[in-house]
Design brief:
elongated; alpha/beta; about 270 residues; single chain; Barwin-like endoglucanases
Length: about 270
């Protein structure tokens, strides 16, 4: 296998790197591997893997397994002690992290590095790096799912409208009798809308439960090839409940539109139809 290897001179935890199982490497003979590397090599915590770094063979003990969308989890983590000082110093490409004593000066440090080395390297703050990752996540996952959700809401309104129109056509005689005995058209329309609302509430509750428990499993299976096996979804009820309410309103609105024919048509015509 040809994998990307991250090297840290200090603890990985200081940079915010976590693991799904076990711990990050802390000693010269330790290594943490990505989930896809673990699957392909059938290696788990405590197993020994052979790694060739700059042509030099290393036998390292797996101390942790992690997930990362970068390199689709075909990567590994080692400490700087694994690489001799000469070899590590001759590495002229890669990504390096620098701890700044005063975090408020990070922007200034980045600016000075970029001015000094110009095209030789590119320095960015950790905040900029994290923002870029979130932009990718929004573009690949959140935005498409939001568009799909909007489409589902529109389709729901159309389906409810069509279904109610068919039902009104079948039951037009009944509605005509109701109107002929003095029942207001808006009351008939309201009864139909309330029936749809009740069904929508039941469907929404089922949908929320499916979204909380089933959706993460489906997404994890879909994203497994991209190196994500445990999706860190945050259930924000301040967002879930309003969207659920919108879906109910969409269904009720579709049924209300479909019953306009009851208000516009005379009772005698409804009975004849």
């Amino acid at each position: 296998m040809n994998v990307n290897i991250d090297v840290a001179g200090e603890s990985y935890e200081q940079f915010g790197y976590s693991t799904l199982k076990g711990t990050n490497p802390h000693h010269k003979n330790e290594i943490a591997i990505g989930v896809n590397v673990s699957k392909k090599l059938n290696k788990d915590i405590g197993d020994v893997v052979e790694v060739y770094i700059y042509g030099k063979k290393q036998s390292l003990i797996v101390t942790g397994i992690y997930q990362s969308i970068a390199n689709a989890s075909y990567s590994a983590r080692i400490t700087a002690d694994v690489i001799s000082g000469g070899d590590f110093g001759n590495s002229n490409e890669g990504m390096y992290f620098i701890n700044v004593h005063d975090s408020s000066q990070s922007d200034q440090v980045v600016r000075e590095i970029n001015e000094k080395y110009k095209e030789g390297l590119e320095a960015v703050t950790q905040k900029t790096s994290i923002d870029s990752v979130f932009k990718v996540a929004v573009g690949l996952l959140i935005l498409p799912m939001s568009i799909m959700g909007l489409i589902f809401i529109v389709v729901t309104c159309i389906i409810i409208y069509s279904t109610c129109r068919i039902d009104i056509r079948k039951e037009s005689k009944t509605y005509g009798i109701y109107k002929s005995i003095g029942m207001p058209a808006n009351r008939i329309r309201m009864s139909v809308a309330l029936g749809i609302a009740a069904l929508s509430v039941i469907g929404t509750i089922i949908g929320i439960c499916a979204g909380i428990y089933a959706l993460p499993i489906i997404l994890e299976q879909t994203l497994a090839n991209y190196g994500i096996v445990k999706l860190p979804l945050v259930m924000n009820w301040s967002g879930i409940l309003p969207i659920a309410f919108v879906s109910i309103v969409s269904a009720v609105f579709g049924s209300w539109l479909s019953t306009r024919v009851i208000a516009k048509t005379a009772p005698r015509i409804l009975v004849i139809e």
